[in-house]
Amino acid sequence: MTADGRAFGKIGSLGWGLVGFLSAAIALFSYRYLLGIGPLAPGIIANLYARPFLYLHIVGAATALLVMPPQFLPRVRARMPRLHRWIGRTYVAGCTAGGVGGFVAAFGSTSGLPVTIGFGSLAPIWIGVTLMGWRMAVARRFPEHRAWMIRSAALTFAAVTLRLYLPILQLAGLNFLSAYRLTAFISWIPNLIAAELYLRGYLRIRPRVLAMAA
Fold first, then answer.
1. CATH no. for residue 152?
2. Does 69 sit behind a cis peptide bond, omega within 30 degrees of 0 on the bond before it?
């Protein structure tokens, strides 16, 4: 392998490692709501449908986010296919529960109609994309399975991009409520667009980088 190839391989490893770290950190931090351990966001606690739907969303989405990164590692798929399948079932269950809980909780948001529309739209799309990926796996149509799961992962990762955009938008001058309303859309729509661009071949990444993140 050339020095250039090794450099891109290291970038891919570091990038996917960062994805895994952020996913695990946000997932584990989110579980605090189930235990009532602070700090807990007042606006989230005040959601009209916090019990049980917001908590269903939290446990489902956090679990999906936690188990998602290893599913894209080639070594896991190739050497431990049974583990890959069981983690996949856990992921699908987490996305489904998180999506159902999130859809209902969106209508109980204390942050206004934009948040209801933004997150209320994300939930059924997330569920539908994930179930399509599961259906393709059951049918053993693995290229399609991989494509749908890339879309699903992009939507699952919205839990991370949401928390990245919020402080950036506030530093840019928006107050918290305005920033939160905006992230109800930009936390997931650009992720899904990026996934589509990648799947259609518009995002060109060196093969070695893809191997680390596929």
1. 1.20.120
2. no
C-alpha to C-alpha distance for 196 and 148, rounded to whole angstroms: 10
Residue pointed to by tokens 């009209």: 48
Collect all residues with Cβ–Cβ distance below 8 Å to 201 and sequence separation of at least 6. Answer: none
Task: For tokens 């599961």, name the residue.
Answer: 134
CA-to-CA distance for 117 and 146, rounded, in angstroms?
28
Angle (CA) 51 53 58, round 5°: 100
Number of domains in the chain: 1
Report the alpha-carbon distance of residue 127 to residue 138 in Å, rounded. Answer: 16
Contact present, 129 and 151 (Cβ < 8 Å): yes
* Tens-digit pLDDT profile for residues 71-125: 988 888 888 989 999 999 999 999 999 999 999 999 999 999 999 999 999 999 9
Among candidate residues 153, 29, 160, 178, the one with its CA nearest the CA of residue 95: 153
Q: Do residues 13 and 212 lie in contact, with contact meaning Cβ atoms separated by under 8 Å?
A: yes
* Element holding 100 (H helix, E strand): helix 81-106
The whole domain housing 148 covers 3-213
Total number of residues shown for the chain: 214
Can you give the pTM of this predicted structure?
A: 0.85
Instruction: Please enumerate in sequence order all residues whose Cβ is within 8 A of that of 202, keeping only pairs 6 or more positions apart, or say none.
Output: none
